[in-house]
Amino acid sequence: MNEATPGGDGADLGSAATGGPSASAPSPVRVRLAGEPFAGAARRIAAELAGETVASRLADADPSVWGPRAAGAPPRTGWTGLAARSRPLAGQVAALRERFAVAGAHRVLLVGTPDAVAAARVVAGTDPGGARLTALDSADPVQVAEALSGELAETVLVVADAAGTDPVVAAVTRVVAAAIAEEVGADALAARTVHLTEPGSPLDTPGDPGPVVVTLDADVPGRFGVLGPLGLVPAGLAGADVPAVLGDAVAAERSLAADDPDNPALLLAGALAAGRGSLLALRDAERSPALTGWLAPLLTAAGLTVVPVPPDEPVGAGPAPQEPTAPAGVVDVHADGTGPRPGPGQGAVRLDAGPGAAVVLWQAAAALAGRVLDTDPFAPAPPAPAEGPDPEPSFVDGGIAVHAGDWLPPGTRTVAGALDALAAVADGAPAVVSAWLDPESDASVAVLRGPLVARLGLPVAFGWAPACRSGDTGAPDVAVHCHLTGNGPGGDLPGSVGADTVPPGPGLDSLHAAQARAVIDDQRRRGRPVLRLHLTDRLAGLVTLARAVTSTQTSTEP
């Protein structure tokens, strides 16, 4: 990848959009391509998009960009130009943060949907000093208990739910709010509570002394809301530099409307579309976990197969390419402009941009890739938690209840055997491991990704659910799935607190399990092999899992 070559590898925003470098641009934005015939295919698609005036129409929020699909349920296009419209938020967030600081509240606790939490983490991740943001996007009782072990007397509560009806957000908010109110009193809690929601939702209830309500645009899909209140308010209250992020993003928005083949947004969209049928290896999972955590479901929803991996890990090819424009088995994706140059022999794309501009570029590219691939990048997140008890497991092995489908061979009685059977039905497709556990106390699970790659002989994507699954529903899916769930310690933490709480709601442990089952059921309905490993005892189950992953593979069950 030639760092010194402009033009064909992606011109900067100034030269692409205005004919020369822009002195006002915070930093140049460049898309770099490598590897033939991948790079050539990406440029051809970018030229086609330019010829169809897609960039200027997208800048005008024209839903016809997505063709016949727009005639049914028009795509929500409120995210275009969102950074410019959000500029007044910078002052509002600064004033709120000062107000809370005067009251002694310096810690921000966000309770929100997976898309909302992912958006806030992206903006918080732009702060090199580390914005002080604690976020909950699930009802996992372990994570909730850890969040409540912090400085409750110094906590600002932010609740992010566009519709205001998410049962997980409601249950977790009840528990968290009760704990904070017990520490500081009901009036003080109300004065330091912020609701991010659409007008008219059950959370749209401003009051004196609170909560403060910041309304969301219903025309902005959740995963495209990073540069609106979903991303900016929680992260800004936690200390992120909102004006800097917006300044960077607004400059990009102004420059990406050019119907020019060198437009970085079109080049990046062309690179994604040229990767159809290939495996996109996201190489920034270690350097930029928040960006990768948001980007992976964004690209998945656009119909792409992605695997977050370490920067130097060899990755095997994914499914066989389905189109002649996708010749590469693996495409390296460097999303944050850092890291080593991708080596020869496969496709590669790298984006050099500031944090706000990078969000603008990736959103536009994912949306336009959906146009080329005839997929719906705005598809809704997974369904609401599934009611009812857990089904009976296929078998139990060492503190792990194993749930599988008809693909599991009769007589399989060990976790190791179930993993081997999952690899056998994958037929070379990647395996996606979703851990519905606690990233802190269960951190050892993530370390098993490498041994899983060796055992399964497949590319393995690992993520902490539900965030890693939020872009999955509705998109083409070629992967096999493994979900790791677990009981909380000490029984089912109540999902409501106090005799006057209505409705009482299920316990958090039950609700968390139901949240996972909804995603699993959806994947099974779409015909994908799904393995669920439920840790009935987290400590014993983790030991069993580690032994199964690292044990010697055998062809028969003991």
Automatic annotation (TrEMBL):
Protein's GO biological process: carbohydrate derivative metabolic process
Superkingdom, natural source: Bacteria
The entry's keywords: Isomerase
GO molecular function: carbohydrate derivative binding; glucose-6-phosphate isomerase activity
Keyword Isomerase set for record: yes
Its EC number(s): 5.3.1.9
Protein name listed in UniProt: Glucose-6-phosphate isomerase
